[in-house]
Design a protein that fits this description.
By secondary structure, the protein is of the alpha/beta class. It has 16 helices and 17 strands. Helix 1 (12-21) packs parallel to helix 4.
């Protein structure tokens, strides 16, 4: 790493080492700390508009699509997402280009005194760093992905002009609540009084979000109820579909994201752009919308790393996402058998994840990603036995991928999933950086 003379951090790695120690500070309710931290650097978040994207699954992909379309409309656009897959800089992007290592280290260095004063958490510092970066880059608008929950997430200190809530499912139950209704209520916390909210949620969760919007006098748009989709074709290079919304008819929209579930995210992104146009943020262009959707991508979302055998990575990390992934694999790919490399966090629904992956896996290679929160593969093995899954245990994701490839035939599919950590470790072991 490069040296940074006369600085608190003498390298990017030194900055990361300090920053990652902040994870020992647990989440605390309230936005006072992140607001204080933003205040120490001049409240940079007041200098640009924000689209705030929450939900359980799909929020990263939806954020990437919204940002891509905004760029195609000529708006200088920031994108803040989490967590990263390979490198911390992935979280901070302007017009498709991520922040440099030295630049983000310099920004965090300026935040350090204020962060030390209030014992700011990792995510509070990262959120403030995104605001500084976007302000210094003179963005017109930033698409900001929620970390967890809603109103008390650090990103909620960045006042938004429009809220987006994608699908809602069980995840982080120990923090957000034991039912989908309770989780939806937490997610709905990002809705602003008299604001606008676009939601891709369905079922009971949709009702909770709708009720919250009504209580706050916010205009509510339901993707499932207000958009019509026709002639959907899911293929091995993405999806093509027709969409009708608010009098507009789009024939043959295409996305390169793989899987039927990504079409729902693309529709959500399209409705967001319509609503931003209604709010006077931009003049909607069909050509720009098409290009933005077609060119959008995100690391680790059904990303194909190689062929013969097919190596596929996906950051699905809860039962709902794993189930959707399993269905997508069956629909999109032709294969002999599927070998799954699986590493998950211990605080997840391990039973639910193993049940969902059993729908597609011929063999599961259980591993432990590089996180102190990682589940013990031996515990996963006990669940695999209950589901009569054939399994092996291999200590690290890199070694697990090597084992999978040694077993795979050319016609097979090696699926690496379970967490961002697992996918990142595997991609690093293969010497593959992000290609998106």
């Amino acid at each position: 790493m490069s040296r940074r003379a006369n600085k608190v951090f003498d390298s990017y790695q030194a900055c990361l080492d300090w920053l990652f120690t902040r994870r020992r500070f647990v989440m605390k309710p309230g936005l006072e700390r992140v607001e204080h931290l933003l205040g120490t650097v001049g409240n940079p978040h007041k200098r640009f508009r924000i689209v705030h994207v929450g939900g359980t699954n799909g929020k990263g992909s939806t954020s990437a699509m919204i940002a891509s379309i905004l760029v195609e409309h000529g708006l200088r656009t920031g994108l803040f997402t989490s967590p990263h897959v390979i490198d911390f800089t992935e979280r901070f992007v302007v017009n498709g280009s991520r922040v440099s290592a030295d630049r983000i280290a310099s920004i965090i260095e300026r935040l350090k005194p204020g962060a030390d004063d209030i014992e700011a958490t990792f995510f509070e510092i990262a959120t403030a760093a995104a605001a500084v970066f976007f302000a210094e880059e003179n963005v017109d608008i930033a698409v900001v992905e929620v970390g967890m929950g809603g109103a008390m997430d650090a990103t909620s200190a960045l006042d938004s002009i429009l809220s987006v809530i994608t699908s809602v499912a069980m995840d982080h139950a120990e923090i957000l609540g034991p039912t989908v209704d309770e989780i939806a209520g937490k997610k709905a916390g990002i809705i602003k009084t008299s604001g606008v909210v676009v939601s891709g949620a369905e079922g009971d969760a949709l009702g909770v979000i709708r009720d919250t919007a009504a209580t706050r006098g916010a205009r509510f748009i339901s993707v499932s109820e207000e958009a019509e989709i026709d002639r959907l074709s899911v293929i091995s290079t993405g999806s093509i579909f027709d969409l009708t919304y608010d009098g507009a008819v789009y024939k043959g929209l295409s996305i390169s994201f793989l899987g039927r579930h990504q079409v729902a995210n693309a529709i959500c992104a399209t409705l967001v752009l319509h609503e931003l146009a209604r709010e006077g943020v931009l003049d909607l262009s069909e050509a720009s919308l098409r290009r933005g959707l077609a060119e959008a991508g995100s690391i680790g979302r059904m990303q194909i790393l190689d062929r013969r055998p097919t190596i596929l990575v996906d950051v699905a990390h809860n039962p709902d996402a794993i189930g959707v992934l399993a269905k997508a694999v069956r629909e999109v790919f032709e294969y002999g058998s599927v070998i799954v490399v699986l590493g998950v966090m211990a605080d997840k629904d391990l039973e639910g994840i193993m049940s969902a992956i059993s729908d597609v896996a011929g063999l599961v290679i259980l591993t432990r990603p590089s996180s102190v929160r990682a589940a013990d593969p031996a515990e996963l093995a006990k669940i695999a036995e209950k589901h009569r899954l054939e399994y092996e245990i291999v200590d690290s994701p890199g070694a697990a991928v090597a084992r999978a490839l040694s077993l795979a035939r050319e016609a097979d599919l090696v699926l690496i999933t379970g967490s961002h950590y697992t996918v990142g470790d595997a991609m690093i072991s293969l010497g593959i950086g992000d290609s998106l």
